[in-house]
Amino acid sequence: MADGRLVIGTKMYSSWSLRGWLAVHLAKLDVEEVLIPLAGGATSSIKDATPAGLVPYLEHQGAKVWESLAILEYCAEFAPHLWPADRRARAQARSIAAEMHAGFRALRMAMPMTILNTRDGSTAPPEALADIARIDAIWRDALAASGGPFLFGAEFGGADVMYAPVVCRFLTWGPEVSAEARAYMAAVRAHPLMQRWYDEAAREPAEWKLAKYEP
Ligand SMILES: N[C@@H](CCC(=O)N[C@@H](CS)C(=O)NCC(=O)O)C(=O)O
């Protein structure tokens, strides 16, 4: 029997779910996956199943954890390697993870996650372009210091967990980004867990598609 459950939403669309799912899998927690198809906002079955009415939501060995960043921190208690070993790098990783969790609203509004599609991002508003420039700078800084291919070195870590759905958005919407950002996006997309998420999304039933995220 599993140690708990992870409640997530539709893999095609749920960017926050991807973060919780990656963290749980990287930490190798043994939890059952409970997938509730998103209804396009205020999904009643998600409200009933989770404390905040949002996914992801983790129950594990008696602990109840919601908010993707809290789930990541919980997973890092079991898998400390999710954060860099060096104190200064760890501070930077936590800062950029928190910046993602708290911000980039314009980007999230202009370029929603819809991973099975290719969309035209050329009409994104200036606020979204400013978010993209900031993210590109965050990535370039971290990659220059670590040498890549992931933000803090050879392993896919907590900061990558928080930015993986941004990679998905950029792959779909194709904004202009630096060569360093493009190399980073390729590394994230090629990670076996990302490959698995994309494959499972591709197998989701057509009835789960939401018009507002489709071309
Ligand atoms: N701040 C939350 C955001 C979670 C969130 O907004 N999740 C969306 C799905 S990506 C959700 O559950 N929406 C409710 C719904 O669509 O019914 C976190 O970090 O986990």
Give the strand content. Answer: 5-15%
Stretches where pLDDT is under 50 for at least 5 consecutive residues are none
* CATH domain class name of the largest domain: Mainly Alpha
Number of strands: 4
Supply the helix-strand structural class.
alpha+beta
Shape: globular
The number of domains: 2
Domain GST N-terminal: 4-83
InterPro entries: Glutathione-S-Trfase_C_sf, Glutathione_S-Trfase, Glutathione_S-Trfase_N, Thioredoxin-like_sf
Organism: Roseomonas haemaphysalidis
Protein name: Glutathione S-transferase
Description:
- There is one protein chain.
- The protein is of the alpha+beta class and 215 residues long.
- It is built from nine helices and four strands; from the N terminus they run E-H-E-H-E-E-H-H-H-H-H-H-H.
- It has helices at residues 15-26, 44-49, 68-78, 87-102, 105-110, 126-146, 158-173, 179-190, 192-202; strands at 4-9, 32-36, 57-60, 63-66.
- A four-stranded mixed β-sheet has the order 2-1-3-4.
- The chain binds glutathione.
- Glutathione binds next to helix 1.
